[in-house]
Amino acid sequence: MESLYSVDRLRSFIVRVIESVGLSGDFSPVFADCLIAADLRGVKSHGIVRLPAYVQRVETGVMTPSAAMQFSRDEGATALLDAANGFGQVAGQRAMSRAIEKARTHGAGIVAVRNSNHFGIASFYAMQALDQDMIGIVSTNSSPAMNPYGTLAPLLGTNPIAIAVPAGAEKPIVLDMSTSVVARGKIRHAALTGSPIPEGWATDAEGRPTTDPREALKGSLEPIGGVKGSGLSLMVDILCGVLSDSCLTGDVKTIVDTSGPARTGHFFCALDVSRFMPSQNFKKSVDAVIRRIKGLPARDGGRIALPGEIEYDLAEKRRREGIPLDAAVVETLNVVAKHYDIGRLE
Amino acid sequence: MESLYSVDRLRSFIVRVIESVGLSGDFSPVFADCLIAADLRGVKSHGIVRLPAYVQRVETGVMTPSAAMQFSRDEGATALLDAANGFGQVAGQRAMSRAIEKARTHGAGIVAVRNSNHFGIASFYAMQALDQDMIGIVSTNSSPAMNPYGTLAPLLGTNPIAIAVPAGAEKPIVLDMSTSVVARGKIRHAALTGSPIPEGWATDAEGRPTTDPREALKGSLEPIGGVKGSGLSLMVDILCGVLSDSCLTGDVKTIVDTSGPARTGHFFCALDVSRFMPSQNFKKSVDAVIRRIKGLPARDGGRIALPGEIEYDLAEKRRREGIPLDAAVVETLNVVAKHYDIGRLE
Q: Is this prediction's ipTM beyond 0.90?
């Protein structure tokens, strides 16, 4: 049973909850906006459903809501932000803003973040570049889920890559993709409902292709393109975890592992298109590319959608009509609300 | 029938041929080195076998060996090189060198190239960053071969991405991957030999999966990860072709299409790791990651290889023992040699 909740109602609920565990009012809005952006775009797994996990990380003392983040290096077109084990959303917003400032001065800005936590959806930050007529490129490492190619141990994360490109009259193009064929959550869901998974999603503990979700959970997600996706995931890990000196491949903790700090690392890049050509011309060219693709014959007469377009349209709809939440999810959220003596989400 | 040819012999042969069509002695060595690097690394399709195609582009007047390349924009951490329809290898080497200089000054350097031509293997340029303790990221757009997701027209190129990461005692990690499952050349080869192709490589003209290489050649290569690889290829095209104002998605010509300039665009990024942590520490961490991965249990007891490792080892072997060339390829090269009254490749 799902009901619809307005963005405003969810935002104020998230803000109240997260401030109850100590996140300052300076930062609670960006945290709330990031979770809501995920729900608006249909990425339920990174939305408000994760709120209790963030709360738990703070309550168990493995995440620091009042972290004193600082740029430990900051020179020219690059910087390194030490997130001091604070919220990934706070670090992410700050790092991307700095990358954009640097791109305004130098044409390009690259900021790595160390000692951070789960930051939600990568496109939330990449899209910060759009209003500035910049291209945003954002990545994060994540907890082990995928075997490095040719091995039998899931050392690599699903390590997403988000790229946001401004358009003119058309909608911006926003790619936000993990380097695995599917998210682990889809396999967990299949295991819960007892349904088989399609071939190509995962391998079992011996590295054999499997359609049994329980065997898949003991094994590895499949990277996109085999050795290619595995290599890409490794490169994301190097740019996010190794370059930031946050932790080595395989050491990032999941959001629900409260045995210690997650030590997540991120990578943010902003690129000012006006350093290459007038922004207006670039955006007209992007419009032309979008129209050219949408003018092609469609496979099976289906809809042709550019990366991020379906999410953009869904977000518009949900901003108007509300975000659907399952009653079970709302109940979980209200357990948290009760604990902190906060008004229920109704 | 294959015979072995030393690097020196091939290099001097390539230099003589390409200087015969007007490439200056200042640039012929880098052109030769790029082709040889491909053959050394086992990427035959981008090696000396392509020499006649480059010659033909010059002879038919669609490529300019004496192109007056210049940086039409060059400020801060970014630049735009107009290759003036010259050799992609000359533009590539120059653009990557500039990106490295910029990274030394600003921490990061990003150079886009417009009006260029086929530049060989992307890793050749990305690897220029390694000796400088920098990370190199290089992309190029390429001629249409892949349907944008959901469409039936191969507008996208196989648009490769190369990322080179310096290591300490271990070999550097060098990823060089196209965004398609396989190269079109593999399908052409299967069509010639009349062998079926594996499922997942390509679709026919109606977008249906096919194992018939002739049907595949009328259709589309499959992108890695479906909608993900398609999106990634589009982003490469935007960074290379659109940002450089070279041409729109779908307009790049193949190396053998002599109906006009290819209008290829490239993208080069160098990132100075010492702006984030001491280079020595970074390289030690990369070594540790490599050893960690190589220490994992292997699937099927096979070899565990990091991206670029097999190519690195093959290059070492071929540098010692020579590069194998098929007699038919050598004969084609000698037809060119005879035309220019150059000593045969024996």
A: yes
